[in-house]
Structure formats: C-alpha cells, structure tokens
Task: structure prediction
Amino acid sequence: MSERGRFITFEGPDGGGKSTQLEHLCRRLEHAGVVVLPTREPGGTPVGRELRAMLLVPDRAPLAPEAEALLMCADRAQHVAEVIRPALSAGMVVLCDRYTESTLAYQGFGGGVDLASLQAVAEFATGGLTPDLTVLIDVDVRLGLERRRKAFRAGEGEFNRIDRRRLDYHQRVRNGFLSLALREPERFLVVDGALAPEVISDQLWERVAALVGVRAEIPRLL
Ligand code: TYD
Result:
C-alpha cells in the first residue's frame, strides 16, 4: 500500500483509450466523494513539460535510447517528489496516465535498453514507490495507431515522435506490457481495449471501488 492514499496507474500501447478511461474513472470517484488527482507522464510538472517537449515533439533533436530512458525517469523523479507523494500523503487517490511500466515497455522492450538497468534507474527515480493497482488497457497495435491517427487528423491529441516509430517497435511494446503484467498478476488488471468503453469502465470500477473502499452502485457517468 502506498502511504495514506491510493496510487493507480494506467498503462498500455497508444490508442487503447487509456486517457478517456482515466477521465471517466476520475468523475465517478469524485461522484462517490473521493478526492482524486489525475495526472500524467511525461509532463506532470513544469520541469516535466519541458522534458516532454524534448522527448515527444517530432522535429526535436534525436535522442540516444539511453538518454530517452533517463529523461523519462527524470520526469518521473520530479513528478513523484512534487506531485504524487504529497498527494498520497494527503490521502488522495492518484490516477496517473503512464508510469514505470511505460519505460520498461517502450525504452526496454521496444527500444532495446537493458531491462535490469532500467529497473534499477526506475527504482532510484521513484524511491521504490509502486502503484496499488496498474490498469493495462491492451489493444492491437494497428487498431491503436489508427485510432491515434484519426484523432490527430480530427484535431484531437497528438501523433508524437514515439507514435511515429515502426510497427514492429509498437508490437514489442505491446508484448512487453503483457509480459510485465504476467509477472505481477495481483497488481495488474488487464482489460481488452477493443471492448466498448462502457464495458471497460465497469470492469475498472468494480476493482477500483473495492480498492478505494466506496460503494459499487455509483452510476457510470459516460
Ligand atoms: P501521450 O500523448 O501522453 O500518449 P498516451 O496518450 O498514449 O499516453 O504520449 C506519451 C508517449 O510517451 C507515449 O507514446 C508513450 C511514451 N512514453 C515512453 O516511451 N516512456 C515512458 O516512460 C512514458 C511515461 C511514456
């Protein structure tokens, strides 16, 4: 358990509907009277927003894979110190869009950076802060990237430097997430991102209501 509050992270390949589900869950928890803090990585702090631009804006200077991994972890270290730990100490429920598993899946499984080294750096960056629950929204990479592209064309969201990588990179990322979930089945809730958003929302709610200790009858606010 993480200090006084609860720490829930959302992970998965791009285009699985993670951010939408996080928003819905946030509203449902607030409706149940819970104090919630939604946040994201990279970019959950002022310093993190500068790092996010270096990492994700397509025309920025290329980064070596290890540098990319360290900048992701620098963003996380700042985020944990400035935002996540204080919120947990105040008893809040923190909902974080991406955390350590993204670094392991993207920079490790996808980019080929040594996993054991990444795990050590991630541990250093977070001081060992582990989520109470990690929701993995799994999605076929073609479907996910197509959704992202469509949204981008419609003027929503971004199609960032990492989205633009080759399909085989994204395939390794997806497989990486799934193998991380298999290693810690208690902490992970794996849901199928191809299901209707309402169905996913209810699957999440059942688990989160029990974790946070609120009544399960709070309506879905989709
Ligand atoms: P974002 O637009 O926030 O994507 P999403 O809505 O899918 O979360 O962009 C974050 C991108 O950064 C996403 O492509 C995954 C990548 N990322 C990493 O490669 N490593 C990391 O440690 C984190 C936190 C994100």
